């Protein structure tokens, strides 16, 4: 896809990386070289003058390994315990890597209640704004340690789109374990074809995306990414799904030449983020 001289003028970008993209596929251990490269890429976006926000999954997957659980946890309290361990570990690594490139990183943990309640929503918005003003990179995750079903965003694809809308970012990049949206799940349909550009996000695209995930740590599958696309596009932000296998794709995206799916933002004046949080689409 060629979007030369378009994406490099973006002012504020939110990048989301999924748990499966942060770890070695064969044993689930953190891929430290990839994390280091991700941080370098994000620092370079800052050096290009963009406001940068990272939404990073991985708390539960990292905690699970630290605790020594071989199975994916299903009990809410076990997930919470894993997240309590894993989030701290992840942040320790991010802090160290960002400081190597002289950037300051920060942590914002949110639940759905943060967005439902007017005061906490405004606090979150103000905090993001101040961090950007100070040149600090917010690293966002769901507050899984206290989050239960009722206050859950459910997946970080949706959360990253909500952050995009809340902060008026103009680009959301979802780094996934797959190149983008295909006409069907390529894991079950070998004839599925990559869709490179979507200018009008209608129902037939939504139906292509299944909620099956490609890994034993992912959440929401492609369906969650299409929900994220609806939120971003209606908020006026472009969105891109690309493969996080090589995070060098971030500068390829900004330079306008990359493999992935590009969703054109089209601000919908009837879209109300607060209403969406309460009732969904
Ligand atoms: N139409 C589709 N196009 C691409 N992938 C799809 C589609 N439908 C379902 N999927 C599945 O969604 C997975 C990506 O979702 P997920 O595992 O949650 O990603 P991540 O952990 O990278 O955020 C793919 O690996 C693929 O198996
Ligand atoms: N908040 C959770 C991740 C939730 C999520 O959406 O995961 P993923 O599908 O790997 O992006 C965690 O940090 O473990």
TrEMBL record:
Q: Which family does it belong to?
A: Belongs to the glutamate 5-kinase family.
Report the protein's function: Catalyzes the transfer of a phosphate group to glutamate to form L-glutamate 5-phosphate.
Q: What is this protein called?
A: Glutamate 5-kinase
Substrates-to-products reaction catalysed: L-glutamate + ATP = L-glutamyl 5-phosphate + ADP
- Ranges for domain Aspartate/glutamate/uridylate kinase come to 11-243
GN (gene name): proB
Q: Which residues bind substrate?
A: 57, 144, 156
Annotated localization = Cytoplasm
* Family matches, as InterPro entries: AceGlu_kinase-like_sf (IPR036393), Asp/Glu/Uridylate_kinase (IPR001048), G5K_ProB (IPR041739), Glu/AcGlu_kinase (IPR001057), Glu_5kinase (IPR011529), Glu_5kinase/COase_Synthase (IPR005715)
Give any Pfam family that matches. Answer: AA_kinase
Identify the EC number(s).
2.7.2.11
Task: Report the pathway entry.
Answer: Amino-acid biosynthesis; L-proline biosynthesis; L-glutamate 5-semialdehyde from L-glutamate: step 1/2
Q: Which UniProt keywords apply?
A: Amino-acid biosynthesis, ATP-binding, Cytoplasm, Kinase, Nucleotide-binding, Proline biosynthesis, Transferase
Entries under PANTHER family matching the protein = GLUTAMATE 5-KINASE, ISOPENTENYL PHOSPHATE KINASE
- Molecular function, one GO term: glutamate 5-kinase activity
Superkingdom of the source?
Answer: Bacteria
Q: Which Gene3D superfamilies match?
A: Acetylglutamate kinase-like
Output the CDD domains linked to this UniProt entry. Answer: AAK_G5K_ProB (cd04242)
The main location class comes to cytoplasm
Q: Where does ATP bind?
A: 16, 176-177
